[in-house]
Amino acid sequence: MMLEAIYHRPKQNWSYAYDRSTLHLRIRTKKADMNAVQAIVGDKYAWDNTKQTVPMRIFATDALFDYWEVAVEPPFRRLRYAFQLEKGTKKLWLTESGFVNELPEDCLSFYDYPFINPIDVFQPPAWVKEAVFYQIFPERFANGDPSLDPENVEPWGGKPTPKNFFGGDLQGVIDHLDYLAELGVNAIYFTPVFEATTNHKYDTEDYLKIDPHFGTNELMKQLVDICRKRGIRVLLDAVFNHAGATFPPFLDAKEKGADSKYAGWFHVREWPLRVEDGIPTYDTFAFEPIMPKLNTEHPEVKEYLLKVARYWVEEIGIDGWRLDVANEVDHHFWREFRKTVKDVNPDAYILGEIWHDSMMWLEGDQFDAVMNYPFTNAVLDYAAYGKLDGRSFANAIGTQLANYPQQATEVAFNLLDSHDTPRLLTICGGEERRMKLAALFQMTYPGTPCIYYGDEIGMAGAGDPDCRQCMVWDEEQQNGDLLKFYQTLIALRKQHASLRSMDITFLHAEEKDAAVVYERRSGDNADVFIIAMNAGTRPRNLVIPAANGEWQDAFGGPGATTTVKGKQLSIALGSLGFAVYKYVG
């Protein structure tokens, strides 16, 4: 046994309440090092009458470790526990005091989960698990009301620059809700819609007002109401890390200096506010002078921003917030933000923009989820760039599954591109087949998938600003085959619980092999899929162990054929091919 590799901690993603009656216990061991791991559990005040030994299962694995898990329902919402580790004939026990060769008769040295207090249970909104998001950059989606156009508006479909405008607005979104419904999405994430000077609106001037080029607050409410009747949720972008250069408190501080009543609203290193050698004398987003960082510790700043957070949920009826540059705002503010929003609507979705490990924000007191860029990177490195073989890809996914509590993974925001990155088709080098592989995995993986507007019709684009082109509405210029692919895939995900479940098992993932095969099951095993993908350019013939019975071709790609013999599934995959099979008994 490699004891150095074994890890457990009685908190965070290692020991947590999944719901009001269930605890999840996890432990890490060296990969392929243990034959079995069991948990010894019981109530600390009734140990002799409640103790039991329960087997654990490997729920995820990566390049170095196996991750074991078990769900336990403590009889009195308290739990003392230890772990029994087995390798061959050798047994060892792990308690909070360390490794022991014999299990103590009492539980005094065991790990302790003191009590499942309902208020502490992290419960993200259930609807998010069923959602398929569609990200809209409002200025570039559709121009529904030309009377709102900026004076310098350019013809729709022109080349985007950092500063030009094309007249997209909220009415344009309302006009195309039928399109979104036909696509199958049931949630929209809007990049900022509040009054600002730029086309992206991340330099907020008035947080309580829809930008006049987009419409009005009343129109926003109308959009939300129409979406609700269609079963579509609406998420807005909260830019609370920083404001804009035309934000009235910033203008006052710029004019009056340290004497401004708003001086404390910002992080100022030196007065007066200015830029020297490209570096502002005040903290900003990056070094962008028009985006001064807000001091979210200041009582008046907190009061203002929490008023904003409450207003759009309570008065306009939005279903949640996406939080821009969330990792640069203090944790105390986010805790108050969560309480403010959840007091108005406990079902609101709070999503943080964080590009790295986010455990400290996902303990139930701040965010429900984060934008899952580690997932993005793993999928793109496999399907788009070809940097990962099957084994490395499966390992990267295993790490993701182990990193967070289950309820956080269930609502993780799984994106493949956005307004901050090149478009998916461009990332894939223009190869539609690679794009389909990435989207297939995204739509059949635990969490909440998000499509960046226009990807589904084959829009391409390099990094900002090219990724922010105008939506193509001329059907003759759309990729109809790709659109049908997305419609079919979204429908398949919505129809089958197994494709949204947490149960994912890699059946084939080998070194120097670009093919992977994985199984998806529903909780009651009534719904089972096997999905095969080949991110390589040479055909692959695979034989996969499978349940004896009939497997139905649910969704096939180019060059994929399957035969079933006994308890084996023989799959032939062409170059960059895929196949989806459903077990029908």
Short description:
This protein is α+β, with helices and mostly antiparallel strands. The protein is built from 13 helices and 30 strands.
Outline the structure in words.
- With 585 residues, the protein is an alpha+beta fold.
- It is built from 13 helices and 30 strands.
**What is the share of helical residues?**
10-25%
Structural class: alpha+beta
* Unreliable residue runs: none
Number of helices: 13
Radius of gyration: 26 Å
- Choose one word for the global shape: globular
Strand proportion, as a percent range, falls in 25-35%
The count of DSSP E runs of length 2 or more, i.e. the number of strands, is 30
How are the strands ordered across the major sheet? 20-19-18-15-12-11-22-21
| Arithmetic mean pLDDT | 96
Distance between the termini: 41 Å
Largest sheet: 8 strands, parallel
Which descriptors would you attach to this protein?
alpha+beta; 585 residues; 30 strands; eight-stranded parallel beta sheet; six-stranded antiparallel beta sheet; single chain
